[in-house]
Write a sequence for this structure.
């Protein structure tokens, strides 16, 4: 028997090692017996990938909401590899644990769909946030920004950076690919909004196929072809830094402006150097905050099909469009405020 | 059961006891049935891996065969082939890939480690090439039910595994083929000089492994509704870990199906419980690594004990 005790020690080490790791890594250990009060609920929140600054900052807002509500126990976990199959494993686990709400940012909607439906069949309420899945797999989506919000914000910001309502000059778009659904929606609203600024003239729309080098050379070509070019909308996360680099290397910082959507950390250097005046994004903390508020309201019954608005704590009343809970309110990062954000 | 297997069973019982005290809902049948969906595919691949390891071989290409089978299924379905035929074609593709591995090992007498290292890259490359790395989804409900339906409380893939495991146990314990497999792993050169058809045994083992990968791929596609060329990246590591934890010697010659089942159960329950209880996904890989090391430690202890035991008095 003596030899067996050796293995038991090893197992104990493995288990206790994991336990101390868990304690240090998160402050969200489940409080046992809390569920007995009947009011407290468990909300599990799944990011596309755990450990990414963008999602970490979302989780901070989610924790804030959970703390503020006091009766929400928040579980925030996700695949560190970004693998959809691992995300499925987590959703299955939460379903088996019988959490009240699962909020998913699906990294692959087709893979996560069946697991989300299984969760719903088991009586778990399911939301999506940040990215959507098949509508039958969830009840509501917490939508950070509509295409209109984004398209309008891009144009308004560009106009402001070029001199306000009377801004004049040629502008161009560097998009992802000509078939990218999201980007095409944004372009539609960019064009719609440009009508408000008669001085701004859209001269070209070029694809960059999610390739930073191509975005770089496309931007170079645009500057050559249109010497009077004043602004570029680089509307994919890959095109934005590519275009900024091209302008920087051409020595046209300040003469040609570029704007687009990105996280502050990715664009900090370009903003400091003046190549980029404004970076556009939604408020990530508020996105996490609103998701937890929506989860609570879903269980309380205040958020139900047909609802047109949702009271979301410090964010106030938020509009609901169909099954989309709209965060609204685009954030603009400039030289003045970008250093306050770390994600 | 041997002492080694009793040890695994004791470890498993200890873990479940701890889990039951810390989080009773984890041990419930409902939770266990749902969570079990994560292990069956690996379990199915681990069975032929056990036989190959017993025959002193190894198959590192299981993850790639798995992915290529899934992609074949997805592409055929996309082109309008009825899902049943697409599934059969996927399994046939698996058997074919396995047969190619077997042919290299048996006829050209290349070490299985090298052969399957090569085909691991090649099969994955083909999967990526023919699917252009796109995810292939959108399968009919009836096909998805293959992984979602339960029979007597156990998901269908679980029954597939049980049948295959019993088949493997019978082959290993009761047939000439099983005796040949063990003989091959115990002493290959001696085996070659006896009347044993070494090449045919090796060829069949690897082809069977490919077929199992095909079956696992079909079940996985049914579970996740998607076939993708990057599926099953971790499969070789996980399958070998389960086999070794289950008591098979990596040098060949020994191993049992019961040990493998216990090894799989231990890996599965530890992994699920750690992530269930501590809610930290990043612990998963650490747990797998720790279990592999623990299994090596156990092996060491038993070997030294055997040496002590066999020493003349």
């Amino acid at each position: 028997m003596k030899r067996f005790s050796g293995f038991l020690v090893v197992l104990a080490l493995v288990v206790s090692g994991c336990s101390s790791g868990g304690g240090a890594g998160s402050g969200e250990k489940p409080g046992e017996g809390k569920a007995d009060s009947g009011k407290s609920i468990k909300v599990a929140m799944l990011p596309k990938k755990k450990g990414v600054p963008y999602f970490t900052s979302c989780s901070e807002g989610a924790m804030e909401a959970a703390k503020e509500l006091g009766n929400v126990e928040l579980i925030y976990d996700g695949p560190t590899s970004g693998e959809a199959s691992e995300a499925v494993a987590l959703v299955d686990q939460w379903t088996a644990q019988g959490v009240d709400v699962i909020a998913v940012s699906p990294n692959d909607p087709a893979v996560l769909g069946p697991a989300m439906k299984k969760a719903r069949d088991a009586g778990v309420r399911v939301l999506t946030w940040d990215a959507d899945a098949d509508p039958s797999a969830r009840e509501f989506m917490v939508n950070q920004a509509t295409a209109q919000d984004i398209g309008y914000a891009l144009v308004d910001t560009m106009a402001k950076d070029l001199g306000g309502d009377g801004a004049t000059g040629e502008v161009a778009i560097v998009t992802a690919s000509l078939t990218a659904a999201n980007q095409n929606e944004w372009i539609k609203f960019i064009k719609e909004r440009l009508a408000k600024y008669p001085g701004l003239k859209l001269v070209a729309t070029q694809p960059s196929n999610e390739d930073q080098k191509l975005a770089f050379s496309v931007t170079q070509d645009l500057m050559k072809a249109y010497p009077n070019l004043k602004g570029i909308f680089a509307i994919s996360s890959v095109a934005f830094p590519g275009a900024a680099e091209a302008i920087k290397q051409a020595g046209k910082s300040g003469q040609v402006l570029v704007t687009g959507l990105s996280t502050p950390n990715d664009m900090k250097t370009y903003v400091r150097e003046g190549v980029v005046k404004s970076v556009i994004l939604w408020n990530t903390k508020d996105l996490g905050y609103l998701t937890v508020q929506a989860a609570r309201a879903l269980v309380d019954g205040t958020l139900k099909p047909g609802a047109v608005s949702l009271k979301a704590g410090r964010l106030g009343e938020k509009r609901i469009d169909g099954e989309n809970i709209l965060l609204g309110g685009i954030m603009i990062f400039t030289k003045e405020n970008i250093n306050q954000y770390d994600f | 059961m041997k002492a080694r297997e009793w040890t695994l069973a004791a470890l498993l019982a200890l873990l479940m006891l701890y889990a039951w005290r810390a989080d009773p809902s984890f041990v419930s049948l409902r939770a266990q049935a749902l969570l079990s969906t994560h292990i069956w595919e690996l379990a199915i691949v681990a069975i032929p891996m056990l036989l190959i390891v017993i025959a002193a071989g190894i198959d590192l290409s299981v993850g790639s065969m798995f992915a290529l089978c899934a992609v074949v299924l997805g592409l055929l379905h996309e082109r309008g082939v009825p899902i049943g035929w697409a599934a059969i074609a996927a399994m046939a593709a698996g058997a074919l890939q396995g047969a190619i591995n077997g042919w290299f090992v048996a006829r050209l007498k290349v070490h299985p480690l090298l052969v399957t290292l090569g085909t691991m890259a090649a099969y994955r490359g083909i999967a990526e090439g023919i699917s252009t790395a796109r995810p292939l989804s959108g399968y009919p409900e009836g096909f998805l039910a293959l992984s979602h339906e339960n029979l007597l409380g156990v998901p269908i893939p679980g029954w597939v595994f049980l049948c295959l495991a019993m088949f493997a146990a019978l082959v290993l314990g009761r047939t000439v083929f099983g005796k040949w497999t063990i003989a091959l792993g115990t002493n290959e050169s001696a085996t070659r000089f006896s009347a044993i058809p070494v090449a045919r045994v090796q060829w069949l083992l690897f082809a069977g492994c490919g077929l199992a990968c095909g079956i696992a791929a079909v079940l996985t596609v049914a579970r996740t509704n998607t076939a993708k060329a990057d599926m099953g990246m971790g499969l070789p590591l996980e399958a070998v870990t389960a086999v070794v934890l289950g008591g098979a010697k990596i040098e060949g010659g020994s191993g049992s199906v019961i040990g493998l089942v216990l090894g799989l159960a231990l890996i599965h329950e530890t992994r699920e419980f750690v992530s269930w209880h501590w809610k930290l996904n990043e612990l998963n890989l650490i747990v797998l690594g720790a279990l592999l090391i623990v299994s090596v430690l156990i092996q060491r202890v038993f070997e030294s004990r055997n040496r002590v035991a066999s020493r003349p008095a």
Observations:
- Chain B has 15 helices and four strands.
- The domain at 3-305 of chain B is CATH 1.10.3470 (ABC transporter involved in vitamin B12 uptake, BtuC).
- Chain B has a mean pLDDT of 88.
- Chain B touches chain A through 46 residues (CB under 8 Å).
